Amino acid sequence: MGCFNMMLNFRLVILVLAICGVRYRMGMVKAEELSLESVKGKVYTLDSVREALIRQEDTIVFGLIERAKFLMNSRTYGGEEIPGFAGSLAEFVVKNTEAVQAKVGRYNNPEENPFFPENLPPSLVPSYSFTQFLHPKAASININKSIWKIYFEELLPSFVASGDDGNYAQTAASDLSLLQAISRRIHYGKFVAEVKFRESAQQYESLIRSEDKEGLMKLLTFESVEETVRKRVEKKAMVFGQNVTLKNGDEKNVTYKVDPSVAANLYKNWIIPLTKDVQVEYLLHRLD
């Protein structure tokens, strides 16, 4: 009798384990299906796009602060400092970093746009299935040459102190980080344009068919929103870039690592206008 009970208990244990195993596998399959849905089904809406743009402001403001740590270091941008390379140290760093990042799949993401897309190596890592949200023409819209020119000729002189501290590699690295952040923010205009087009297709289609750039620009412009963005970015630069001390009375003599107006002017003069240029260019090809 004892032996019979032991065998019965053993069979019950095996049955319970089997049931648990089936439930576990079913749970894993269901979890995998949900995971795949969340990965492959990224949804772009006005709210999600707006949130992404706000987060990108943080990256840009911190990028300005990081670049301001170094002096202008003009040797980073002039002459042929690298033997066998026809270009500046900054170009050398950007081109070689982009090549490495391309090998690990950075530019498979439609949200990324290289500064030197010519002859980038293919990705060596398994391909990720990004959501095909944009019109195929989006891949050909890249205004990084304009961003590059504005960055070095207009933006840097507006907030970086003149002089040479010898930190050329660090300077080029901080330039790259800031350039990529600015580029990502401006080219995100393609996603903004697509969301707006899907929400008001009829309103946009007539302007697109008539190739009315001015009409599209007016439709995309909301001055009150742009002013809000500029004020928010300036406030972030004040908060993130404040020099903090523990001395009493210093609250009245606040100083900043970067003048907050630099961040506001960056958005006003370049980021917002160039983002709208990208949106218009994208929309003009939306019906191709």
From TrEMBL:
Keywords: Amino-acid biosynthesis, Aromatic amino acid biosynthesis, Isomerase, Signal. Residues 1-18 form the signal peptide. The keyword Lipoprotein does not apply. GO terms for biological process: amino acid biosynthetic process; aromatic amino acid family biosynthetic process; chorismate metabolic process; prephenate(2-) biosynthetic process. One of its GO terms (molecular function) is protein homodimerization activity. It catalyses: chorismate = prephenate. InterPro entries: Chorismate_II_sf (IPR036263), Chorismate_mutase_AroQ_euk (IPR008238), CM_AroQ_sf_eucaryotic (IPR037039), CM_II_prokaryot (IPR002701). Its EC number is 5.4.99.5. Pathway: Metabolic intermediate biosynthesis; prephenate biosynthesis; prephenate from chorismate: step 1/1. Residues 168-279 form the Chorismate mutase domain. Gene3D superfamilies: Chorismate mutase, AroQ class superfamily, eukaryotic. One of its GO terms (cellular component) is cytoplasm. This is Chorismate mutase. It comes from Arachis hypogaea (Peanut). The lineage of its organism: Eukaryota, Viridiplantae, Streptophyta, Embryophyta, Tracheophyta.
